[in-house]
């Protein structure tokens, strides 16, 4: 065969060989694409399955077990702070004045001393919470599976706990009669603290309020009835 005086000689056998080679290459490409598609789909399916499992099974379990443990951390922190302060003298917190006949004229709170105790408790609570929070929440792997007979089995998975803000203290009071011309006056403190539990998706903020008696005293003498319904120390200023 010749074009413009140039002879070109190509056998049918060479055409057939090239055709077969191209077909094989195309078949390999199709197989590679199919395998790649299957692998991508499999990875996608596994990822979605894991995410669904974490959100529907693990998250609620961590929420349930973790919230109880974080609440315990918060309570331990405030308990520790209260135990660290020495016995509080009632007369340092409250000034009671009497008439010549022995009746109570006024009951006033020593705001400076009360605020000092509140600040001390808040600082100690936060320090203890910062310390215990480093341990995080530990839940056995078997428990996270959601399968009953595997509960408590396996090594622990640790979930992070972050203290939030600073602990806060607030005071309140109560008066109650305990005999003729005798009144029990109690002073309480409520310690508020909070921490966040880091979940597989997002976080859960857990708040705690624990109340304790700071001091109590039996006031001897007739107490004006106006004091008996007072619950706020602000009303004793």
Tags for this entry?
237 residues, alpha+beta, three-stranded antiparallel sheet, two-stranded antiparallel ribbon
Short description:
It is built from 4 helices and 9 strands; from the N terminus they run ββααββαβαββββ. By secondary structure, the protein is of the alpha+beta class.
Can you give a write-up of this model?
The protein has 237 residues and is an alpha+beta fold. Helices cover 44% and strands 32% of the residues. The chain has four helices and nine strands. The strands form four sheets. The chain has a three-stranded antiparallel sheet with strand order 7-8-9. Strands 1-2 form a two-stranded antiparallel sheet. Strand 3 (94-98) and strand 4 form a beta hairpin. Helix 1 (12-84) packs antiparallel against helix 3 (111-133). 19% of the residues are buried.
Give the SSE layout:
Elements: E1 2-3, E2 6-7, H1 12-84, H2 90-93, E3 94-98, E4 104-109, H3 111-133, E5 137-140, H4 141-144, E6 156-159, E7 161-179, E8 182-198, E9 203-220
Antiparallel strand pairs: 1-2, 3-4, 5-6, 7-8, 8-9
Helix pairs in contact: 1-3
Question: What is the share of helical residues?
Answer: 40-55%
Helix-strand pattern? EEHHEEHEHEEEE
The side-by-side strand order for the widest beta sheet comes to 7-8-9
Strand-pairing-aware structural class: alpha+beta
- Quick check: average pLDDT? 81
pLDDT under 50 segments (min length 5)?
A: none
The oligomeric status of these chains comes to single chain
Beta fraction of the residues? 25-35%
The biggest sheet amounts to: 3 strands, antiparallel
Distance between the termini: 119 Å
Which radius of gyration do the C-alpha atoms yield?
A: 37 Å
Report the count of strand segments.
9
> If helices are DSSP runs of H or I spanning 4 or more residues, what is the number of helices?
4
Q: What global shape is seen?
A: rod-shaped
